[in-house]
Amino acid sequence: MTKFNMTRRSVLAGAAAGTATLGMPAYLRAMSGEFIIGASLPLTGPFATAGQLIAPAFSLYEKIINDEGGIAGTKIKFSTEDSGYVPQNALANYQRLLASEGDKVVAYYGDSTGFMKLVGPELKGDQARMMTSTSFATELANPETHPYQFMSGPTYEDQFNILLQDIAAKGGKTVAFVHSNTEFGTDPIKAGQAKAAELGLEVVLVESTKPQGADIPTHVTKIAQANPDYCILQGYVTGVWPQLIGGARQFGLTTKFMGTFWGMEKLIADRVTAEAGPFLEGYQGVMPYRYSYDTENAPRLQQIAAISKVALAGTPLENYFPTWGIQAFASLDILTIALRRNAEMGKAPTADNLAAALATIKDVDLGGYFGTNISVENNKVGTGRVYQYSAESRLFTPTSDWLTV
């Protein structure tokens, strides 16, 4: 249920090799001739599906930007390695890239909250680079403690905030939080409890599970005993969250289930529906972005759709680009704005200069990833909306306006 085998060898080969690079003007970065953006992705291990679905975004983005003339005339290139979702592996990848490419490396894309926290103390002096990642960890959205790390969406606490506001607006009274026993899973739980109390919602269950291989019957029994109006699932990627919902439906529960970004991938929901039936009907969750099929007034999404049709022909991504890859695209476009603004000012692309350029991104149209103009505040974009899945149409459609927190 959780594996997606690409039918075109070049997609996974390109993901594993992951060669792509960013460049900037030669007078700003002596003898470089290009910008290199490094990345670590879980191309193997428990979250390999996510890594393999994100990886094609890098090669496509390289082509898009270089076809546009690069950044102030300098080509970009990516260098991607497998981390296996092990923070120490990702850190070693980062250090190895700096050792081999030096000042050509202007930024890095990390694979997890664990890596972003581990690399933080390393980002000093000539070892500092701008960083973005797959993570929406709340503690990273703090320029004072993490000045070189940013995210292209709301933190996990923000996402819980949006969902709880939506639950209260729909007349919900009781809510359960079921989360994985990882940093990813526990991140928004305490803040969510406080926000629920503020909104007059009663949290009737807080349940921790394994991120993979969870004891589904036991956890479903606890949800049934609490019988909440709503249940928010947090800290899962490909497995557990649909199994919990399926178990609850078999139990006869009418609880409405909701998820955050990593539990909102259409490919996963479609595969579950095809294999196990329509029990995800009505499942809701928060997304920072439009889905790739929602291209009206979204020129960047139109561009991604057109290039995917050709470059990814014969793969599951030919006609739909996953939300996890859209996150990477949005992050890279924010980074590109910072790089271009920095180049226009004639400054070297140091981490300090790029952080300052990042802070100038206010009320910007990012090309349609978001349904509104965005600003980078506290190294995040605190915007999202609630979507609902239809097992019949196999689409997620919005059920709320865009909210900024």
From TrEMBL:
Tagged with keyword Zinc: no
UniProt xrefs under SUPFAM superfamilies: Periplasmic binding protein-like I
Domain Leucine-binding protein positions: 37-391
Highest taxon, organism lineage: Bacteria
Gene3D superfamilies: 3.40.50.2300
One Pfam family recorded for the sequence: Peripla_BP_6
Keywords: Amino-acid transport, Signal, Transport
Similarity comment: Belongs to the leucine-binding protein family.
Protein name: ABC transporter substrate-binding protein
Source organism (scientific name): Cognatishimia coralii
